[in-house]
Amino acid sequence: MSKKLFLLDALALVFRAYYALIRNPRITSKGRNTNAQFGFTNTLLELINNQKPTHLAVCFDTEAPTERHTDYEEYKANRQDAPEDLLAALPDIKKIIQGFNIPVVELDGYEADDIIGTLSKLAAKAGYEVFMVTSDKNYGQLVNDKEKIYKPGYQGGDVEIMGPKEVCDKWGIKDVSQVIDVLGLMGDAVDNIPGIAGVGEKTAAKLLAEYETLENVLKNAGNIKGKLGEKVTAGKDLAVLSKKLATIITNVPVEFHEENFRI
Fold first, then answer.
1. Helix residue ranges per DSSP H, the chain
2. What's the half-sphere exposure (Cβ side, CA atoms, 13 Å) at 178?
3. Whose CB has fewer CB within 10 Å in the chain, the N or C terminal residue?
4. What pLDDT sits at residue 1?
5. Across the strands, what pairs with 129?
6. Is 0.85 topped by the overall pTM?
């Protein structure tokens, strides 16, 4: 049987679960909203029963700042505070995960994206087929034939599995390595990554079709005609910073424990 590792981006799935039930909340007899606990557990059960993973881990962000926050104070600063009942669900969700005997992996100074990126590379090297369970688009940069994005169905929708072809088609690029170039050019409103003002996804893809990398786009700013050339010239520094902010770190000091991650 092939070895299949699923790595769950906990907070992305918790937020998704909470808001999926926002119009029909699951309230206990004591008045607690348990949307997040209920929805997350359903996702976990569906995944285990339908996808038959051999190995599994759930990765969390911590509240400690990361290098991205040091590089750019405004990183994720646009996000509203999470609802209190969602935050109150997190200790329950960790207990549920531990009840399944699934490891929780978190490390101060790193985001769950970085931990998943690192574990994914280590496991792929050890011969695993890896699925990164998330709805975050920036994971596209990690994808290859052994490492894929697994996007759970939303409100009854189908599961989406994204390999290199699906990622490239989605972004209009030739190679998944260009995902961070696109994000460097257009930014990412979700994480408050600035990009170049006035450059959107289609313009970013068009520039990369011609120049291949963000660095080449910036080097050729003088050759880009009209207003776009002016925008690229004016936004050079922010573009370089944005690409760095969007790049998932894959050398986090965590280890892939084969036995601990076994279902």
1. 10-20, 35-51, 67-71, 84-99, 112-125, 164-171, 179-186, 201-211, 214-219, 226-234, 236-246
2. 25
3. N
4. 65
5. 4
6. yes
**What span, in angstroms and rounded, lies between the C-alpha atoms of 232 and 219?**
10
Length of the chain: 263
What average pLDDT does the chain have? 94
- Paired tokens of 201: 């996804």
Beta bridge partners, 210, equal none
Helix then strand then coil, in percent of the chain rounded to 5, is 50, 10, 40
Q: Which of 104, 112, 168, 103 is nearest to 135 (CA)?
A: 112
Helices 84-99 and 10-20 cross at an angle (nearest 10°) of 120
How far CA 69 is from CA of 76, 188, 254, in Å, comes to 8, 15, 21
Structure-derived torsion over alpha carbons of residues 106, 110, 115, 117, reported in degrees to the nearest 10: 160
Distance CA 96, CA 246 (A): 31
